[in-house]
Amino acid sequence: MADLISSWSNKLEAVPPSHCIPLHERAVDPVPIVKDIPVIDLEKAKGEERLVVVQQLLKACEEYGFFQVINHGVREDLMEEAMEVYKEFFSLPVEEKAHYAKEAANNTARGAATLYSSSAKHYDSEEHRYWRDVLEHSCNLDGQDKITWPDNPPRYREVIGSYSDEVRKLSKVILGLVSEGLGLEAGYFDKELGQRMLVNHYPACPNPSLTLGVGGHCDPNLITIIQQEVYGLQILKDDKWIGVEPIPRAFVVNSGLPLTVISNGKLASVAHRVVTNTTQSRTSIGTFICPEDVVEPAKSLVGPNNPPLFKSFKWGAEFMPHYLSKKSVYHAALEPFKIDA
Ligand SMILES: O=C(O)CCC(=O)C(=O)O
Ligand SMILES: [Fe+2]
What we know:
Largest sheet: 8 strands, mixed
Strand order of the largest sheet: 2-3-11-8-13-6-5-4
Radius of gyration: 19 Å
Bound molecules: 2-oxoglutaric acid, fe (ii) ion
Structural class: alpha+beta
């Protein structure tokens, strides 16, 4: 049975050696929670200010690789209910959660529901583990994976079904704006893209200075849309970690490594990590929007004066194995696909 941290962490007074991360990775310096990560009002994209919003969003992806969205169209009651469902799921008895406990999933677009702990397998070291449990499953349009989703809490499939539909719509709005900003051919992202739930649960920790919820990494998908309510997420900006302020009812959005490739280097994929705290557990609901299988610089962005900076590659078969073996070296997964200038 997987060793789920949410099953035993509340009985601990000290961090076990297995979960003390190496000194060089620990979050030791004080990290400010900043207000300068752009907050984008998506309602404005429907009116005269659309161009301003497009520019704001593109600049955010270039400078921070992160932004938050408000007035995004996902119903507030659904956001609240999804958060409740996930909190209930992670507080179920261990025997109940064990139905889903498997080896770490491989982050590709398809896959049955999987629950695993602290994800050392996603990193190149097996020696330490992060302070989180993860529930992960795909939610593709054909609905075929739904039978693998948890059925406890009993409303899980209904609530998360509606939630994933609404967040899919939001992802299309965001990718439409990205596409406009980059000047891609119309409908560039209007394909059936893969979608995954990746829900992290970080229990309160007796000594946060010894642990990390998740270590620094860039995301392997196009964009990630995160719902959070408790602070913990930090991003690496100009070689310094800064904290992302939780804004009620907002989503945090970040651009992943494939978007750096599609934009031919224009959009950033920025490293981020999660710290723990002593008093509160933190649950973050992540929606990962995955690229189509072939990833390459968009044709409209390359030409005689703009040579492609990356080769075309298959996301699942070629990119993901590199990503999973080199995740802690933030941009390393792109190295094999770079074209020397
Ligand atoms: O918990 C968070 O806010 C972010 C988690 C994350 O970076 C990830 O799952 O890739
Ligand atoms: Fe991430």
